[in-house]
Every structure is written in C-alpha cells, then in structure tokens.
Amino acid sequence: MRSEPRSVALATAMLVLAACRADAPQALGTLEWDRVTLPAPVAEKIVRVDVREGQQVAAGAPLLQLELTRTQSQLVAAQAQATQSREALAELRAGPRGEAIAQARASLAAAQAQARDADAYYARLQPLGRQRLVAASEVDRARAASQSAQAQVRVAQAALLELERGTRAEQVAQGEAAVAAADAQARVQAVTLEKLDIVAPRAGRIDSLPYKLGDQAPVGAPLAVMLVGEAPYARVYLPQALRNRLKVGDTVQVRLDGQQKAYAGRVRMIRSEPSFTPYFALTGQDAERLSYLAEISLGKEAAGLPVGAPLQVVSDGDE
C-alpha cells in the first residue's frame, strides 16, 4: 500500500520536471556561413562553367564566362565616340582655318564694292528725282538697294571678326565635357566587359550555381552563390526571456541536434526589433512569444559542420 503513493509521487515529480523543462526558453536556429552572391551584369548566355557546386576555390579563380560579342561591340562603339569627341575638341582649340578667314575677307571686300556701287547709283538719282526727271519709285529703290548693301557689309564684317577672334571659351568647355562623357562611357563598357568573366571575389566554397551552361540569366540574377569566411555562425531566434539576458559580446554554447559536443560562440548581433508578432499586438504573458534574430560567431573548430544543421544555443549561465 505504501509503494502506490510513492509511485504516484514519483510520476507527479517527473511530470512537473518535464513541464519545467518544456517551459524553459530555448534559442533555436541553424548553422550558416556568410554568403557572397555574384549577380549577372548583363543578360548574356553562359558559354563556360569552370566550377561545380561544393568546390573550394581561391580568390580570383574563374567561375563562369558570359558571351562577349555584344559587349565588345558596345565597347568599340564607345571608344570610337570618345575618339570623335577628342578630335572635335582639337578642332575647337585650333580655331578657324586660315582659308576660312581669307574667304571671309574676300566676302567683305565684295560686299563693300557692291555697297559703293549702290551708293553711287543712289547719289546720281537723287538730283534727277528732285527735278522729276525720274520716277520717285526709282529713287526709293536705289535708296533701299544702298541700305541693303551697307547691311551686307556689316554682316561680312561681323563674320570676319568672329573668325579672327577664334573659338569661344564656352565652346571649348562643352567640347571638353563631351570628351569626358565619352571617355566615361567607354570605361563603363570596359568594366562591363571585364565583369563577363565571373571570378571568385574571395576564397570560399561554391554553394549554388542556379544557371547552367547555355542559360541566359536576366540582369541581376544570381549566377553563383559562395560560402565565405573561416568559420560558420549560428543564426538563431531568441525568445523574450533570453533576449533580456544576452547582449552583444556574451559567450554562449552551441549544440547541434543529436550531438553532445558544445561549441563556444560569441554573440555578434541581436536585432532590436522582434521578428515575429509586434509588441504592440501583445499583452501580458503574450510578450513571451516575441523572437529576436541574433547571430553568434563560432570558432574554426566548427568549420566542418554541415550548413543548415539545426542547433540550440545555451548561455553560459545555463551550463
């Protein structure tokens, strides 16, 4: 009879202990690496693939090659435009040719001769007009022709003066700006052409190659995803209870599911805003449901652990 109350008490204690353990806050997450994504600079076909998924590569190692023909043509066109702009600037700086100035002087001399002839004809008609020996309309036409000839002289003088003074400083400045713009466009095309040879920016491991040989990825699409760094990190979600106890720089222990070994880590980031359920929608005990994204740096001893493995974080105070 005494053994039965003991069994009941033991079972009750185990249930209470299990309930306490179940209520204990846990920080769960996955094992991750820093990732580098290499986007497609242009929408061109993949003509060569030099690596495979899971391969370890050094910094600067070739990964993929995109088709070069169109970008090379665009670079040649941009370089030709830059050359044209430089030649146009040289022409502006050199100023008018001597032949053009000589032509302008000859035009001025011709206009002056015509003006003298028109003035003389008008001078001859004036006394005849006063004597009514010629029609008044003929005198008016002679006067108009004389004035028109004088205007043509002024036009020729202005054209000659413009050539003699040379190119305006504002025109030279515009030419210099056009050269700078054309050179910049050529450099842009050169950089784009260089980017068509996709290389590893850092040493790491190829995690994913979303597109295969012959595919044409859109601009900005990831051509390759790399895992980089010397060691992985734990990406976890802290419940409210643990969030209040941990801060950046604290040391914690990380355990993978199914393993007893713990790996030392240090909290490197904790988000200030909760990832799930905003606080203003919670009251009372509901605030315990808040979760905060955190990252925990691990040492090199964790470098061989599988990416994406589920894990649990325990602070040193819980050890």
From TrEMBL:
Its main location: other. Residues 72-187 form the YbhG-like alpha-helical hairpin domain. Coiled coil: none annotated. InterPro entries: HH_YbhG-like, UPF0194_transport. PROSITE patterns: PROKAR_LIPOPROTEIN. It comes from the Bacteria. It is found in: Cell envelope. Keywords: Coiled coil. The keyword Acetylation does not apply. Signal peptide: none annotated. This is HlyD family efflux transporter periplasmic adaptor subunit. It comes from Pseudoxanthomonas mexicana.
